[in-house]
């Protein structure tokens, strides 16, 4: 029962569409009509407002981290991991938006921060290295996600590695169109005027 409660709390927290709410509050319109149509920070950045994009990133990370910390405090580490996965699903597939949400990078970071901050820092470091080297946000996110379970296992153990693995699979699914473009060599680079879908 505790795990079910943790999952419900996680999903409800994760499904709050901060990217949509913040862009509307800032007078930037409906983020779903811009770029990829996703509600995450990367797409919010396409509005040209970096502060709103930064706030979206922070809020998306927090909405994933807080239910993890709550469940972890009351019911233990495994409940925290369940809450994290549920929050991630809520962000990617929010019931309020016909199950079309963000791609989950910010939430991934928030969950890792709550469960094991060293792994979160490694995730961010991998993202930054790839992003600066290749100038592709999607490739950076996919690389960081793919390596997260490995670092999670080394730093914390098999339970965190399994959790990171589940999150990575979902993130890859959310980036499936990016994967196709990466394979074709047509993925736009950071700062490109081309709209990513």
TrEMBL record:
Protein keywords: Acyltransferase, Cell membrane, Lipid biosynthesis, Lipid metabolism, Membrane, Phospholipid biosynthesis, Phospholipid metabolism, Transferase, Transmembrane, Transmembrane helix
Reactions catalysed: an acyl phosphate + sn-glycerol 3-phosphate = a 1-acyl-sn-glycero-3-phosphate + phosphate
Segments crossing the lipid bilayer: 51-75, 81-99, 106-130, 150-173
The protein's Enzyme Commission number: 2.3.1.275
Record localization: Cell membrane
Coiled-coil portions: none
Domain of life: Bacteria
InterPro entries per the UniProt record, alphabetical: G3P_acylTferase_PlsY (IPR003811)
Membrane topology recorded in Swiss-Prot or TrEMBL: Multi-pass membrane protein
DNA repair among keywords: no
EC top class named in words: transferase
Pfam families: G3P_acyltransf
Pathways per UniProt: Lipid metabolism; phospholipid metabolism
GO MF annotations in UniProt: glycerol-3-phosphate O-acyltransferase activity
Matches recorded under NCBIfam families: glycerol-3-phosphate 1-O-acyltransferase PlsY
Function field: Catalyzes the transfer of an acyl group from acyl-phosphate (acyl-PO(4)) to glycerol-3-phosphate (G3P) to form lysophosphatidic acid (LPA). This enzyme utilizes acyl-phosphate as fatty acyl donor, but not acyl-CoA or acyl-ACP.
Subunit organization: Probably interacts with PlsX.
Stated family: Belongs to the PlsY family.
Name the record gives this protein: Glycerol-3-phosphate acyltransferase
Organism: Devosia rhodophyticola
């Amino acid at each position: 029962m505790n795990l079910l409660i943790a999952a419900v709390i996680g999903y409800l927290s994760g499904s709050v569409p901060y990217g949509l709410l913040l862009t509307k509050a800032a007078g930037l319109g409906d983020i779903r009509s811009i770029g990829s149509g996703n509600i995450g920070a990367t797409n919010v950045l396409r509005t040209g407002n970096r502060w709103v994009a930064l706030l979206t990133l922070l809020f998306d990370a927090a909405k994933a981290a807080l239910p993890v910390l709550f469940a972890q405090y009351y019911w233990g580490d495994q409940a925290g991991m369940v809450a994290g996965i549920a929050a991630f699903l809520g962000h990617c597939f929010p019931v309020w938006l016909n199950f079309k949400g963000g791609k989950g990078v910010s939430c991934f970071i928030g969950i890792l921060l709550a469960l094991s901050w060293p792994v979160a820092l490694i995730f961010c470091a991998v993202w930054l290295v790839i992003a600066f080297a290749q100038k592709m946000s999607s490739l950076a996110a996919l690389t960081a996600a793919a390596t997260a379970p490995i670092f999670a296992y080394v730093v914390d153990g098999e339970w965190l590695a399994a959790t990171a693995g589940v999150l990575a699979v979902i993130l890859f699914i959310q980036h499936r169109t990016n994967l196709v473009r990466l394979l074709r060599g047509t993925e736009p680079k950071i700062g490109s005027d081309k709209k990513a879908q």
